[in-house]
Every structure is written in C-alpha cells, then in structure tokens.
Amino acid sequence: MKIKPISLILAAVLGAPAFSQAADLIDTFHAAQTSDAQFAAARAAQQAGQEKLPQGRSLLMPSVNLSANSTFNDQNTQYKGVFPFPGGTHRFNTHGYGVTLVQPLFRQQNWVAYSEAELQVAQTDAQFRIAEQDLVLRVAQAYFDVLIAQDSVQLAEAQKSAINEQLAQAKRNFEVGSATITDTHEAQARYDLTSAQEIAAQNNLEIKRRALQQLINAQPQALRALGKQFKLEAPQPADMEKWVDEAQLNSPQLAIAQAAAQLAEKEVDRNRGGHYPTLDLVANYSKNFSNGGSFGVGSDTTSKSVGVQLNVPIFQGGAINSKWREAEANNERAKQELENARRSVALQTRQAYLGVVSGIAQVKALQQALTSSESLLEASKLGQEVGVRTNLDVLNAQQQLYSTRRDLYQAEYNYLLSHLRLKSAVGALNEAELTKVNQALN
Question: What span, in angstroms and rounded, lies between the C-alpha atoms of 312 and 192?
Fold first, then answer.
C-alpha cells in the first residue's frame, strides 16, 4: 500500500541507521507507559488521592497524645503573721509526663467527611482512567503523525522524480523542435515547487519524530506502517444511540462529575452538622515529680481520669449558617455541571461515532479517486504522445495523483484514530483496543 522501504527513507532523510526490527504501536505504547512524564504525574496523583480514605477514616479513630515537661523554679516566699513555716528562697525542678486519649463517640461531621473521602478516591480513580485513555490516544496520534509525515516525504520524493523525468523529456523535445520552451519552464517551475515541498515535508517529519520522542523519552526507531491487514469496519453495534447509552454508564468524565455532585450533597450535610453537639470519650494519665516546693519538700503525683466530654455549639457569629448556604449553592452548581457533563459526553460520543462512519466513506471515496487519478495520469501521458494533451496536463495529473494518495493515507490514519476515540468516549479504551489497531500494521 505504501511506497517502500520506510526505514531506508528515514535513514536517508535523517542520517540515522535503519533498524532491522521496526517498532509497532504496542511497543511505542509500552515505552510511553514507563517514560511519559504526564502519565507518571497522573499515576502519582492517583497514589496521592488514595490516601484520602485513610485520612477520612482517621477522623473516626482514637487519637493519643504524649506530653512531657521539665521546669526550673526559683521562688522567694515571706510569710506574714504567726506561722511555723520558714520563708526564704527555694530553688527546685519539676518534671512530668502525661498521656491523653480521645475517642470520638458522636461527631456527625466526621462521619460525613469519611464518606466524602470514599467519593474523592472514586474521583481519583476515574481521573487516572482518563489519563490511561489519554495516553493511548496521544501515543496513537504521535505514532500516526510520524507515519503520515514519512508518507509525505516519500510522496514528495516520488513526485519530484516523476517531474524530473518530465523536465528531461521537455528539454529533449525542445532541442529537437517538437515542443516549445514553455513546456520546459512549466516542468522546471513544478520541479522547484516540489523541491520546496520536499524540504517542508522533511522538516515536518523531524518535528513529528521529536513529538514522539517526548512521549517515549528515546530516539524513535523505524515504525511499522499500515499493511494488507488494514480493514474498514463499521462500529458494532451500528446504532449511535446505543453507544451514547453506554457512554452514560461508563464514561470516566461522567463518573467524575457524578462523584462531584455527590460530594456537594455531602458538603451540605457536613456543614449542617456544625450545629450538632459532639461527644468524646476522654482518658488522661499523668505523672509529675518535684524535688522541692514552697514548704521545702518535694512530691510525686500520679493522676488518672476517664470521662466523656460534651460540646454544644451555641453561637459562632453566623459562620455555620453562612457555610451551609455556601454548600447549598455549590450543590446546585455541581448538579448543573453534572447535567452539562452528560450532554457533553453524549455529544462527544456522537461525534466519535460519526467520525468512524464518515471515515469509512471517506477512505472508500479516496480509494476510488486514487484509481481514477492513476487512470487520468496514464491517459494524459498517452495523450501527450499523440499530441492531444500538453506537458502541463501531465504535470497536473501527476500533482492530482500524489495529492490524492496523501489524502488517502491521512484518511486511513484518521479512521483508526476515530475508532480509538469512540472507545474512549464510552470508557472502553485500553491496551486490548490498541492491539486491534496494531494488527493493521505490517
């Protein structure tokens, strides 16, 4: 299907050695999984988000604190009246330690915060699923960008070679007097234009390779191109609304919005809980030592206590009511954002579905156009030989042929990308789906 060999073209264009083993889409994806900084950041964000759950659970668990102290005392005491106690200056040290345990018995806000932590973890997981799907799409896009850039270089070289033949023929015909100098100038102008296009194509290829290098953090090797295994397959099921229904159930973008709406509802409950009393179990153990005192004698003291502590909020300057109203407003905002997310997911799914369907039609149309362009070029060459077509007609036919071939290659890559985008819209894009696309490569 493509002009061969790609690896040799790359070696000639970039001055790099040809690889005996070309990389495919799966190889590139695995390299990006371990090297892409954006995906690594998403993985770290998921790991950080997982910690929300133990943090929320800790609000329901007992807390234990240890305290210790050591103090130097310098006291001067003078007693008034008739007392048998000696006055004077006393210097001594006091030190001790204590342990306090607090177990929440009823804190409504803490229970709500724990349920919020579960929703936050669900959000984190959905965000990582988006990052995984985004990596698949970015790898496929970068991979196919390199392939179409390679195709453009090869087509420019092939077109340049064909025009060079036309130029040589025009010069020969002019020398023998069977053609005018105009034919030579037309061919020369088209040759120069194609040379400029070739330079631009080579530059674009280098840019696309650097974009792929950013994903895999390595110099890209030769890539496998589309082969005979490439097939046009319509979406299954062939019903756009069924794809929309699946997206409404499994889209990670929608899962994030749903979790956000539930979090907003929980925030209303949590801020309402600011009016509720709290009840804690409190236990203390302390031991203090002193080697002196006001009466000149030391002491050792041990204290133990267990009890419950009730705290009833009476008035906090209106802050609780204000936070409650704020949470209610945020709750309404989250509901509207959820509805917007549903509509956006439905729109994206329909666009992706239509992208696959229209992509199939476009590829078929361009395949037919390529056949027609090839026939036109042959007819133009034959017509030039018998004098019913000019050199310009042949050049135009060549230009149309190579433009159609380039458009066909681009349409084939776009079709494959549309398949991946459709799977992404319904939350089903993974390595297995990428493997199916990879089977279309040589």
Answer: 87
Answer yes or no: is pLDDT of 69 > 50: yes
301 neighbors 95 (Cβ within 8 angstroms): no
Q: Which of 13-17, 48-52, 189-193, 303-307 has the lowest mean pLDDT?
A: 13-17
Q: What is the DSSP string of 107-143?
A: -HHHHHHHHHHHHHHHHHHHHHHHHHHHHHHHHHHHH
Q: What is the DSSP letter of 272?
A: H
Query: CA 59, CA 104: separation in Å to the nearest integer?
Result: 8
DSSP per residue, 26-62: HHHHHHHHHH-HHHHHHHHHHHHHHTHHHHHHHTTS-
Amino acid at 201: A
Residue with tokens 């209610």: 328
Q: Where are the domains of the chain?
A: 6-59+107-276+321-438, 63-106+278-311
Q: What gap in Å lies between CA 36 and CA 44, rounded to an integer?
A: 12
**Cβ neighbours for 107, distance < 8 A, ≥ 6 positions apart:** 59, 278, 279, 280
pLDDT of 145-200, one tens digit each?
999 999 999 999 988 888 888 788 878 877 777 667 887 888 889 889 889 989 99
Domain 6-59+107-276+321-438 has CATH 1.20.1600.10: yes
pLDDT bin (cut points 50, 70, 90) of residue 20 is very low
Topology of the domain comprising 63-106+278-311: Outer membrane efflux proteins (OEP) (2.20.200)
Give the mean model confidence (pLDDT) for residues 391-414. 90
